[in-house]
């Protein structure tokens, strides 16, 4: 039996060897396929986790932007209201009216019967106009104590006509400058927090991707570690960079206010507060003011210098840091902090000077003025109905939405000024309730989120290359690179190597190309 078995194996040893080889190869091939499937599954799982992580980080960053704007807005509002105290002017007008009524009453006591019969007709119109300001009005805290007395002692006596003209110019200027300040603060905050959010994302991912020398040691996140320093994401750099919003809140708005006030005087200067005005004419006048401030054409708006209102010149940068209390003369800045801050400020300047910034700012302003003129004034003053369309009569690039009427309703300009005066406090509200103007801007301007996504996800590869100069980053293959943006919109990822080699246009050129992809993707998703 044993011998027969040996002879059988000897006769079939070649076939058995071939069969064993086939089985072995099949087993190895199966194991290889299973390992590849498992590797692909793990890669898909890690990509999904990375995509969800990036999405959550981005959404949280945008929520932080909204909260930051609401926290900073009251500072700008306080400064603007103090510079344009419409309530003080109204109190002065009320005082003059009270003195005039007292004189008429005194003449009535002396026996001038005709005077008493004519007094109501003389004062009714002024009374109704002033009551419009007084009803539901807001008085700033800084104007509560002796506003009329301060006005009397600091300013020369002015006539009623001069006071009404000042009320007209100041109330319109104040509302317009508050809308501009809200739009500019919204965009500046988006740029700042998304630039820092991008750096924080890069540093955290690189830190996780780099193995620790001591695997048994538990590492807590440290914002001042070597990876954060490599990306310029240290605490001191971030603190100084965010401080530069101080310029808009305390200095920048002043230059913009002078420009707005000049435009308002040119457009509204000849109007009498007592005359009637239609909603269409009011929209046209506001649009005329905007054209003088922002620019009448697309090219003019692109060339408007908004940077001077948002960031100081290089000579004034130390002034901002000192005035805000961030720069300590006794503690010199490290070269790393100075270089990182310079890089952040330069990139911010490039973004502000880009045509995309101008386009989005125009859209934000459109929403702000639409809410003021075509919503509040139309319903509260003119009792008109509006078509629920995103276009607005005060928009620089859209048609009017007011329903045409054979007899458009009219209202006294003084009544419109009263509403605008009250709305100024609503525009600058950042504490009591949600700011409806900010909510309208964020909800209706879809390009704002696309802009933030471009800022958040641009130059990822550039940041990686910068980090490789100071640290070793493993596994930088394009197919498994942890720094590769993996958010839902693949078109919002980092700029290409060709963009980064473009020394002529730099970040500006790279940003514009990525922006084109973002807008195209946004339009296609909206059409779907």
TrEMBL record:
GO terms for biological process: protein import into peroxisome membrane. Residues 105-129, 469-489 are annotated as: Disordered. Pfam families: Peroxin-3 (PF04882). The keyword Membrane applies. PANTHER family: PEROXISOMAL BIOGENESIS FACTOR 3 (PTHR28080). Keywords: Membrane, Transmembrane, Transmembrane helix. One of its GO terms (cellular component) is peroxisomal membrane. This is Peroxisomal membrane protein. InterPro entries: Peroxin-3. The chain crosses the membrane at residues 16-34. One of its GO terms (molecular function) is protein-macromolecule adaptor activity. Residues 470-489 have a biased composition (Polar residues). Signal peptide: none annotated.
């Amino acid at each position: 039996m044993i011998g027969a078995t040996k002879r059988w194996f000897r006769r079939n040893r070649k076939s058995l060897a071939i069969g064993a080889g086939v089985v072995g190869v099949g087993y190895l091939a199966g194991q290889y396929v299973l390992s590849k499937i498992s590797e692909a599954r793990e890669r898909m799982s890690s990509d999904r986790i990375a995509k969800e992580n990036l999405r959550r980080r981005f959404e949280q960053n945008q929520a932080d932007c909204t909260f930051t704007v609401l926290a900073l807005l009251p500072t700008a509002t306080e400064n603007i209201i103090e510079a344009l105290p419409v309530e003080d002017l109204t109190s002065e007008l009320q005082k003059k009216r009270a003195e005039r009524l007292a004189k008429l009453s005194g003449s009535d006591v002396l026996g001038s019967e005709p005077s008493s019969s004519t007094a109501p007709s003389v004062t009714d119109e002024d009374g109704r106009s002033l009551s419009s300001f007084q009803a539901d009005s807001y008085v700033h805290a800084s104007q509560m104590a002796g506003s009329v007395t301060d006005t009397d002692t600091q300013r020369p006596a002015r006539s009623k006509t001069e006071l009404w003209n000042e009320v007209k110019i100041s109330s319109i200027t104040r509302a317009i400058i508050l809308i501009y300040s809200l739009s500019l603060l919204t965009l500046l905050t988006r740029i700042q927090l998304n630039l820092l959010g991008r750096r924080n994302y890069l540093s955290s991912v690189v830190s996780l991707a780099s193995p620790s020398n001591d695997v048994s040691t538990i590492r807590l996140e440290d914002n001042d570690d070597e990876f954060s320093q490599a990306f310029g994401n240290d605490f001191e750099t971030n603190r100084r960079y965010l401080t530069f919003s101080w310029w808009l809140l305390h200095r920048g708005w002043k230059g913009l206010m002078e420009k707005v006030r000049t435009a308002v005087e040119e457009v509204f200067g000849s109007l009498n507060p007592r005359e009637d005005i239609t909603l269409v004419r009011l929209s046209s006048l506001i649009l005329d003011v905007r054209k003088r401030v922002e620019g009448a054409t697309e090219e003019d708006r692109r060339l408007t210098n908004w940077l001077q209102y948002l960031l100081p010149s290089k000579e004034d940068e130390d002034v901002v840091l000192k005035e805000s209390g961030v720069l300590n003369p006794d503690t010199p800045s490290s070269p790393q902090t100075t270089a990182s801050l310079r890089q952040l400020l330069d990139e911010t300047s490039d973004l502000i000077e880009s045509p995309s910034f101008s386009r989005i700012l125009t859209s934000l302003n459109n929403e702000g003025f639409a809410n003021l003129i075509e919503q509040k004034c139309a319903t509260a003053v003119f009792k008109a109905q509006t078509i629920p369309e995103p276009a607005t009569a005060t928009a620089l690039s859209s048609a009017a939405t007011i329903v045409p009427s054979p007899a458009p309703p009219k209202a006294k300009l003084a009544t419109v000024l009263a509403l605008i005066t009250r709305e100024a406090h609503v525009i600058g509200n950042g504490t009591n309730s949600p700011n409806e103007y900010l909510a309208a801007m964020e909800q209706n301007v879809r390009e704002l989120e696309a802009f933030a996504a471009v800022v958040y996800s641009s130059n990822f590869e550039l940041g990686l290359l910068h980090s490789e100069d100071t640290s070793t980053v493993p596994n930088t293959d394009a197919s498994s690179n942890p720094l590769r943006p993996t958010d839902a919109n693949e078109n919002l990822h980092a700029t290409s190597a060709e963009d980064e080699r473009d020394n002529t246009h730099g970040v500006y050129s790279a940003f514009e190309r990525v922006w084109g992809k973002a807008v195209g993707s946004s339009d296609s998703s909206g059409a779907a």
